[in-house]
Amino acid sequence: MAKITAAGLALIAQLQADVETLVIDRMIYANIDGLDPDVEPPDTEVKPAENDIVRESVIASAGYVNPNTVVYSDVLDAAIGDFSFNWIGLFCTEHNTLIAVTYVPLQSKRATAGFNIGNTLCKNFAINYTDIQDLTEIVIEAAIWQQDFTSTINSAGKTGISFTDTKPDNTLWIDGSELPADAAYDALNTYLNGIYGTGPGGRSYLPPAKGYFLRITDGGAGIDPDVAGRTDRGDGTSGNNVGTRQDDSIEAHKHISIFGGGNSGLFGQADSNVYLGTGNTEDWDNKGYYTNDGSNYDGMVNAAGVIGSETRPKNINVRIYIYY
Questions:
Q1: Last residue of a domain, one of 104, 120, 153
Q2: How buried is 250 (Cβ within 10 angstroms: 0-12 exposed, 13-18 middle, 19+ buried)?
Q3: Using an 8 Å Cβ cutoff, are 127 and 92 in contact?
Q4: Long-range CB pairs of 34-38, under 8 A, 24+ apart, other chains included
Q5: How many angstroms separate the CA atoms of 229 and 240, rounded?
Q6: What are residue 88's phi and psi, to 5 degrees?
Q7: DSSP alpha helices (H): ranges in 115-223?
């Protein structure tokens, strides 16, 4: 719960009496041990100790809700971090005064690091006082810029790749599980909209991406020749659509065999009898008519280790997370 401090009230009253402008230009974040977010800050609250302060932002946006209510906003984008905070204050540097303060549940701010995408937070801080709009000389309606911020910071559904088993805050691993029945995941539930199916709890399943390679949707390019055979993603949708899957496959092709092989054959003599088929006089059912699966030639005809249970390129294991 936001609270105007005793020092803030005194400064507001003084500036109103002197017909001067109140400039609130800093939003301060702190991490204070043992702080209870459900407790109202005391009137005597002061700026935290320097070792508790994790960030001081210059306020770039402010607006009025009505003549008695103004809102200050600070956007912490994905380049800012890493720190955690449970205390936020509005500060006037001109008069070195903490104007208002609020306690919040401990929140984490993480910066983008490599493939680990940081989170973006928008903190809005409203204060109420008679004629505060005139005192602060704020002329922009808060609804205008708040709507703009809302459109740019909504991160539900954004994904990232992690090369460790650690993921950013406010994310889930993409593992095909059902979303938890918690309001915190409502935005992601709306974003997914059950396209990968709906679980017993009535929530959307996350994409079942474990163990799969990713392939960009063909979109009519003709690169994926088997789009029509792509399987149901979970909601009955198949074919050339996001989320559909393909089983592993090997393109149709031919191999040269030792069929008909003799001394002059490509692979040399197949056998001393040349023919190994019916009665040693036919070649159509020659045991050498069919190519070997390769398992007998690992390290001999083929390089050691290339024979396996699937056809695949060189790869590295990663994990994919999604923001809620």
A1: 153
A2: exposed
A3: no
A4: 35/86, 35/87, 35/103, 36/103, 37/86, 37/103, 37/104, 37/105, 37/106, 38/103
A5: 9
A6: -135, 135
A7: 132-136, 142-153, 186-192
| Model pLDDT for residues 195-251, shown as the tens digit of each residue | 999 999 999 999 998 888 888 888 888 888 988 989 999 999 999 898 898 888 888
Give yes or no: residues 96 and 194 share one domain: no
User: Which of 324, 77, 310, 91 has its CA nearest to residue 211?
Assistant: 310
Instruction: Assess if residue 294 is contained within a domain.
Output: no
Which residue shows structure tokens 């409203």?
A: 126
26 three-state secondary structure = strand
Q: Are residues 188 and 74 in the same domain?
A: no
165-193 pLDDT tens trace: 888 878 899 999 999 988 778 889 988 99
Say how many residues make up the chain.
324
CA 252 to chain centre: 38
Longest dimension (CA), the chain: 117
**Is the residue at 262 inside a domain?**
no
- Helix (H) or strand (E) holding 66, with range, is strand 61-66
Report H helices in 65-119. Answer: none
Question: Which whole-number Å values give the CA distances from 49 to 30, 71, 263, in the listed order?
Answer: 9, 25, 91
* pTM recorded for the entire structure: 0.51
Give 62's strand partners.
72
Q: Which residues contact 21 (CB under 8 A, 6 or more apart)?
A: 15, 135, 136, 137
- Across the beta sheet with 26-30, the strand order is 3-4, 97-109, 83-92, 26-30, 53-58
Residues of the domain holding 56: 3-153
Structure tokens belonging to residue 187: 């935005």
